[in-house]
Amino acid sequence: MLSSATCGATTWSLATHKEKIITPKVFIIDMFADEGESWFGIPEFNVLEKNITVPGFSPLFPQAHCTADGNICQLVTGEAEINAASTITALVTCPDFNLTQTYFLIAGIAGISPKLGTLGTVTFARFAVQVGLQFEFDAREKPDNFTTGYVPQGSFSPDEFPQELYGTEVFEVNENLRQFAIRMAEKGRLADDEPSRMYRQNYASDPAFAAGAAPPSVVACDTATSDQFWTGALLGAAFENTTKLFTNGTGTYCTTQQEDNGTLEALLRAALARRVDFSRVVIMRTASDFDRPFDGETAATNLFLMSPGFDISIKNIPAAGVPVVMGILDGWKETFEEGLKAGNYVGDIFGTLGGVPNFGPGNIFGGGRAPVQKRFLRRRLSRIGRVG
């Protein structure tokens, strides 16, 4: 039986309200309609049994959807960083959800570097890097000795670590959880089709693009966030370098998308308020197109004609994602209710949730969590000095 409600719209007694609260074990986060609809009609579970209108969600996607028991929920944020951050902020402040033990599966499509993967490839990231948060020259006006028109903020060359930080430049998620998600996803049967197979053969002539010419698989690599949709070998190389630079050489640039750092910042602030557990986040992106052309193709052709990987990238969201969701539910009592401990740093570039990141300036809060009741002066964050 389908049901609909509006978050916070009904006044209940405290006891009744506790009974009405939805406590998801897994919350799936998609970014646009095709991604969201990929979960509809699947045999494993029905997220349309319970529909909750949440004030603050995108006007295009105003509802969260849940199974009847509330164990699995799903939403669509809307595209780009502002929509992602706004929707997730609305979710974590909705009083009808208890998200303190929820696992969040970011599940969308992305561009991919043919050095790491191909059309239909499923990727799981440890790092999300906000590569667009930089100074920018038009390439026709950049200094002659610069390899790119992008320069980290506050810096004076493309290879200098940013000297002014906003805090959203890099997020790192739970590596043990990522490895679990990879093992589960590898149980799925990935979709492929003949147009994608034919198109990816264009990349076979370049040994550096061997992964781009191969069939889709599950890959561990990192993701780059920017509202700009870029293409071409030069920008691909520039953001490869940005990813390495911002993560102190640890991150591996792979996928390109528009939302993840916005989503992660909203979840991190919710974690600071103890509304969510940031160590329960999985970043999954399936590849719909290549971030650069094959030999002999122009960047404009690569962008405007696009590749034929869209359909299989959408199909591979549930193909890989359902085993991840079911793996968490099946192992709930034994492992996931208590939480899968991270063996790595988890959080942002500032160390806001505690711990010490091995990138950026280290923990700017003395190793502990950010003191939420105090204002932190921007002057302390600027001109931080070189970070190698």
Automatic annotation (TrEMBL):
GO terms for biological process: transmembrane transport. GO terms for cellular component: endoplasmic reticulum. InterPro entries: Pur_nuclsid_perm. It comes from the Eukaryota. Keywords: Transport. The keyword Ion transport does not apply. It holds the Pfam family NUP. Belongs to the NUP family. Nucleoside permease that transports adenosine and guanosine. This is Purine nucleoside permease.
